[in-house]
Amino acid sequence: MTEQAVTFYRPDRGGRAPTLNSPEYVQLSTAAAITLGLMPGKMHRVDCTHCLNLLVTYPEGCRANCAYCGLARHREEERDFNARNFIRVDWPTARYDEIIQRVRAGGDKGRFQRMCISMITHPRSGADTLTLLDRWVQALPHIPVSILSNPTTMEREDLAELKRHGAEIFTIALDAATPAVFERTRGATVSSPHDWEHYWRAIGWAAEVFGPERFGVHLIAGLGETERELLEAVQRIKDLGGHSHLFGFFPERGSLMESWPAVDAGHWRRVQLGRFLIDFAGGRLEGMSFDDEGRVVDFGGEDKALAALVQSGKPFRTSGCPGSDDPEVSACNRPYGDSMPSDIRSYPFPLDNGDLKNVGGQLSKKY
Known about the structure:
Layout: E1 8-9, E2 25-28, H1 30-35, E3 51-56, E4 93-95, H2 96-104, E5 114-118, H3 125-139, E6 145-149, H4 156-164, E7 169-175, H5 179-186, H6 196-210, E8 215-221, H7 227-240, E9 243-248, H8 265-280, E10 289-290, E11 296-298, H9 303-312, H10 353-362
Parallel strand pairs: 3-5, 5-6, 6-7, 7-8, 8-9
Antiparallel strand pairs: 1-4, 2-3, 2-4, 10-11
Helix pairs in contact: 2-3, 4-6, 7-8
């Protein structure tokens, strides 16, 4: 197999912003670039990602100003948008058609189980996402596509159009578990255009248009919510037919919250376990018990069954859109997107005995 050449722009090269626009160009995660052989490098205990994460890109960047995000508008005079970090890593830029050619030629060695187009808050993001989707479905119909949407610029018909054009799963980065946290981190308080009610309206549209098991909602743990509040959001999403994709907060360099502490390990492990119980193991929020500060003190159910679930390691792996192997394990493993390898929050690989011992120590109760 002859590898296809790709015109590849590393984040440390300047002078290119005026020409790098979607849909001709896209950014891709460092993990995806390594998996495709476009970047040298190794990832701790994992050799690839099973999801090709792509990001639409424009010289003027994202028009939102989310407090925790490296792509936020307040950085627009700092440096080229194409060079900004996002969920802790660089996102190099390449021609979209050349990425498609490389995947068709086997450059990923058959490891991609899914592709995801991530939108940003930009006037062209919706139309260009549809163009990218059409090109992918025509060229690589065997690899399903997820859309990580920008509800602020969308209406219900936009979701229906994406589904008609072949999107399999629709996801929404709600991120904040409560209206107060949303307003403080994503709303007018930080001069950002997002609105809590509109986001939940879009989640309802996703449930109607894409149906059960075909939509997901991103939630970030550690933005100031309680464990109960986050799991209330998880239960609400599950009751609509969707799944929650959890991220542990880790301060993003250059963001407004770069000095905010990373999510507490105990808080994180308990909401990971609670989320998995609700999404995949028949658990219900009303069966759980919480203390006066909203911490989980009892997950409900039998200790033996809960212990077996903990020992499986699945609740503590990266959560996201499913792959082809196991619906309870995400194809989008996002290696080290929310932690350092020395203190892993979302495990991008199956847990071994040492990992399980670490998780057990972080939970308030041993299993």
